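Bit of a strange request maybe. I'm writing a small parser for structure token strings and I need a real example to test against, not something I typed by hand. Could someone generate the tokens for this chain?
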Amino acid sequence: MTSPSRGEDGFGLLEHVDGLVLVLDRGGNILHANRGCERALGHPCEELIGHSAWEPPVCVDAAVGRESWLPSPGGSPSRFEAWSRTRAGSRRRIAWSVAAVDAAPGRTPTLVATGRDVTERRQASDELRRSRDILASIVTVAADAVVAFDELLRVVLFNDGAERLFDIPAAGVLGQRLDRLLPSRERASQLAELEAFVASGEALRRLGQRDGIAVARSDGRELFVDASLSRTSIHGVPVFTAALRDVTERRRAEREQRFLAETARTLAASLDSHAALRIAARLAAGALECVCIAALRESGSRPLVVGAAPDADRKSSSDELVRLAEARPLLPWGADVLRSGVALLLPKLVLENMERSAIPPETLEALRRFDPTSCIIVPLGVRGRLLGTLTFLASSSDRRLGEADMRLARELSVTISLAIDNARLYEEARRAGQAREAIVGIVAHDLRTPLTTMLLAAQGLRRGPFPIPEAVGAPRLDTIVRSAGRMARLVDDLLDVTRIEGDRLAVDRHLVRAELPLLDAIDAVRPQILSAGLSLVSDLRDGLGSLLADRERLVQALGNVLGNAIKFTPPGGRIEVGAVRADGEIRYRISDTGPGIPDDQIPHLFDRFWQGEPGGRRGVGLGLTIAKGIVDSHDGRIWAESGRGRGSTFCLALPAAPETIESARPDDLLVRQPGTASRGG
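Reply from user aminoacidic:
Good idea to test on real output. This should exercise your parser:
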């Protein structure tokens, strides 16, 4: 078919149309194609003339046939979309509209197909639809609950996670307000917060605090969820989404751990096993929200039984059950738990079944009034010893006890058992200490009498009317006197250590010039220094001032440290002593040129009866212990600086007397009277 030149076929006006225009005959063959077709498809217009419109390249869509290119019998335009192929081989989506046009006189009626390239729009639409499908599928199968609602708080989306969380099918909640998903006790406040978010214009908001918010399941059980709100717009209509994650178990676990830690701290403050058991019962009753009966086995006596209730309404029931449990186990399974050490959970307790067991009628009647619905019995035990039981009873007004409560009860039993065991160990240690102090006191008293007798007898022989030959008797009498004196000092040291350990070392403080106790101590040990072949270097500065101290006790402490230096310094060695005032303290320093102390032994220097060299004893190891006790009683500090092969230095630091006290007259001084001394750190 030969095409007339453009403009001669009467369709010249079509060249000014931006879109695609095809002129078809009644059979659908192309009579004319405008430049818009060439721009869109890349094919010269002349190549399209004579082709059928439903065939390539104009139409490569198998779903679009010849009938689509013909108007409807009623004359209405035919509208459709079809894929075309460009000259370069790519595909374009064209939206067509085909209508019949009345022919001019003398011409055959024709069809006009106008097209618009909608490829980009179609691709964007397809991409949007795919994205929505993907998002919808993700939201639907997401593990978290997703609930979308409108401005009136009506649910418009309820995914599978929400169905599982609330135990409600989507069909049962779509179109309804969020009210039914919220617990009644918090409904008003939570709805107010949701309405505030809707009105705020915010894009994001988190509901509740760290512990989340409460929601209500279909069965009435409350759950706690992390809840985040977001705002979006679909076709200009605002939609709000709540993403919910169940944190009930996490919240329970965190609260339980905090509770157990607080319980451990509370119980640790009590060193009385009976008091600890009473505190434990009260805490346990509050934690599990039910009555708790704690029974502790006591050797050779009836068990100690205490009880507690979570509120005042159930206290009378708790007291009655405790009274009955003092005579025998409250429930028939208590003895089995105590014997086996295996915890027991009865989530459904039926009184009728208990009536057939050997329970006294009075106990059965009390239980019937209490109306228990479930119970937990856990053993109290530590280090292989069973101490007693904890019994938890929930009544009809409580929730039923379950596995989660059983886990908490077991954790509580461990914490309580350790606290009771520690309290018992402390009581045993205290009794043992008291017994030891009593024995030491008795022994010391019994030793003093013969020692005094020995000394008096020896001194009497020395001064008696019957002279003893000097060469024979005098040395022996001197040995007796020296040995008795050492034994007397040892007895005094033992008594001092006992007083120090019992916080009963008496000090009588007075205003004392700081250098005097050190000078007194030097005078007391000077004979030992000379006999040991040692030299003494003293460095006492002026202006030391004064301190409030028991002069005799302080001389004793300094003398013990000096004696220790003398014992461990070889002949020809040197001992240096000195004192300075610094930072509100009087600091005494005693150094020697002995072999020094290994680093690993320094922390033990002030332990009682401790000896650095097991092979060679040079005393009983009480001198430094007593020195530390005396310094502590003056609120001071004592420490050692040493190292193997470089001698040792011992430092004693005591608080200097305030200037206001130093300038006062003796009669104006407030001094501590003899009595129990405070112990420093």
